[in-house]
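Model it.
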Amino acid sequence: MKKNKECFIKYLKKLDLHTDDIEIAFEAYFVGLVETNQYINLFSRKMVIDEIWSKHFIDSVSIYEVYRDWSGKKVLDFGTGGGLPGIPIKIISPECDLTLLDSTKKKIEAVRKVVDNSILPKVNFLSCRLEELKINGVYDIIVSRAVTITPTIQKAMIKILKKNGKIFLYKSEAFEDAKLFRDFRVHNVLEVSNFRELELNCLGERRVIEINYG
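Modeled.
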């Protein structure tokens, strides 16, 4: 087993999330991403392939250090790109109702093929801008990774979120855009689990910003 995958499996075990079925599903997702990325960029082609397990999968799963109550929740992954962090969350918590949203139609269609052609749990797909959604108070949780929040996006998020809903933003050092929201809490992740002892330094500082709406 290569180093980054081994570190990912150790991380799942540290968080008491590992099962054989979950590991098999992540392997299927990894293979699907790599194959599909030959045709459309879902991640940087300059990346060392093995680092998908750390830079993308470990980062996506780090939210479980902060929050685990996904059962029965309607979840939107805004700006999903290659299905991150939504698909990793769905693999671990298949009981949530997940929708992947990205404004780039080619990316959504590519991720749809990754899901349809593998053993991954089924999800919903939307290809549009967030502010184009003509819905109100639908989602319990919105997750977003590597997206800068603007005032327009902030208003759109609040509009589609249920009362007492939550938003989780994945951030590194900079999280000035979180200040657009009234009530937020900063969680430093990948430290609680003493993950640094695995000598995987490619992630750097990682934070999950928890925003409560209600």
